[in-house]
């Protein structure tokens, strides 16, 4: 494969992952977590995400009303804890149903 093919693949791979990452973050935040613990939890299930991707995504989801957050001190450090809001729970349910439907259709085609 040439360099052009590799660049194209990487671009398409990132585009494919983008929506999946949103679903993964929402699903992981059914249980309250702070940024680093969320990143570790995602990595443990094979969803790798850079901090430069995760934190802007958390801020965007919170601004959309899908997450609630609060600053707390833990281990003598201030940490911002995130969790799904009620709107986020409803949106996660809808997105998960859409994901399952799309995934089932794609599996038939692939």
What are its keywords?
3-stranded antiparallel beta sheet, Helix-turn-helix transcriptional regulator, 4 helices, Metal_resp_DNA-bind_regulator, WH_DNA-bd_sf, alpha+beta, WH-like_DNA-bd_sf, 110 residues, single chain
Written overview of the protein:
It comes from Brevundimonas albigilva. Residues 23-93 form the Transcription regulator PadR N-terminal domain. InterPro entries: Metal_resp_DNA-bind_regulator (IPR052509), Tscrpt_reg_PadR_N (IPR005149), WH-like_DNA-bd_sf (IPR036388), WH_DNA-bd_sf (IPR036390). With 110 residues, this protein is an alpha+beta fold. The chain has four helices and three strands, in the order H-E-H-H-E-E-H. The protein is globular and about 50 Å long. The model has no long low-confidence stretch (mean pLDDT 94). Strands 1-3-2 form a three-stranded antiparallel beta sheet. It has helices at 3-28, 35-44, 51-63, 86-109; strands spanning 33-34, 67-74, 77-84.
Q: Indicate the multimeric state.
A: single chain
What order do the helices and strands follow? Answer: HEHHEEH
Give the structural class: alpha+beta
Total of helices: 4
- The proportion of residues in beta strands is 15-25%
Helix content class: 55-70%
Let me know the number of strands: 3
The gross shape turns out to be globular
- Head-to-tail CA distance between termini: 22 Å
Q: Strand order across the biggest sheet?
A: 1-3-2
Largest β sheet strand count, sense and barrel closure:
3 strands, antiparallel
The Rg value, from CA coordinates, equals 16 Å
Query: What is the typical, i.e. mean, pLDDT?
Result: 94
Q: pLDDT under 50 segments (min length 5)?
A: none
Protein name: Helix-turn-helix transcriptional regulator
Pfam families: PadR
Domain Transcription regulator PadR N-terminal: 23-93
């Amino acid at each position: 494969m040439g360099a052009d093919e590799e660049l194209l693949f990487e671009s398409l791979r990132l585009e494919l992952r983008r929506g999946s990452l949103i679903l993964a973050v929402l699903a992981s935040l059914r249980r309250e977590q702070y940024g680093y613990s969320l990143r570790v939890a995602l990595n443990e299930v094979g969803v790798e995400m850079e901090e430069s991707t995760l934190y802007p995504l958390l801020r965007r989801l919170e601004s959309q009303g899908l997450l609630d957050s609060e600053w707390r001190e833990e281990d003598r450090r201030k940490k911002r804890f995130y969790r799904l809001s009620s709107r986020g729970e409803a949106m996660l349910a809808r997105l998960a149903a859409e994901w399952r439907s799309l995934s089932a259709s794609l599996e038939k085609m692939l």
